[in-house]
Amino acid sequence: MNRRAMKKPNLLLAAVAMLAMLPLAACGGAPAEPPPLAGAQIGGPFTLTDKDGKTVRWDDFAGKWRIVYFGYTYCPDACPTDVGVMMRGFDAFAAAHPDLARDVQPIFISIDPARDTPARVGEFAAAFSPRLLGLTGTPEQIDQAAKAFIAYYARGKDTPGGGYLMDHSRIAVLMDRAGKPIAMLPVDKGPRDGPPAVAAELTKWVQ
Q1: What is the pLDDT of residues 148-162, one digit of tens each?
Q2: Do residues 174 and 89 make contact, with C-beta atoms less than 8 angstroms apart?
Q3: What CATH number should be reported for the domain holding residue 61?
Q4: What single-letter DSSP state applies at residue 59?
Q5: What is the number of domains present in the chain?
Q6: H-state helical runs in the chain
Q7: 6 lies in a domain?
Q8: Does 71 reside within a domain?
């Protein structure tokens, strides 16, 4: 993974920072902690393709909680690490709350449609969990999805052998049953501390 990605402006984090400055009140006036991403304009319609070539739309997940991560299968380090943390955290949550976990759909969306075929994305997702859904699409479809979720990506530097890296944001977003953003899952905490932190965050919000 090209570490320059981490230096790019992160529009999602900026949006969260602005939201944190706004006064928020719980329904009915009772004191309660609002979701960190409450009111953020994150998420929206997309049309993509799964491992079998089947069309998948955002509306297909209506009524389910969703975890969304944008990455690419040729990523040498960051994506496998982040997705591994995300799914280990999800598995821990599922073990403790199986009924709730059945209504949560983890989703991996490729930002490298030139190389990430449906079959390859499916293999990548299956390597982490049978519960993880891998999606890809045309460049136009990927661009639409990334813009809806404020996910940054761009082609990075070339690598030996004719390959290339992709610069991209590294964020796993939890969305509620209505497709509204709730929180960013702490996949950045690393393989040791990340999974329990992800599980705790899911336990906190998923109902």
Answers
A1: 999 999 999 999 999
A2: no
A3: 3.40.30.10
A4: G
A5: 1
A6: 11-20, 78-96, 98-101, 118-128, 139-148, 190-205
A7: no
A8: yes
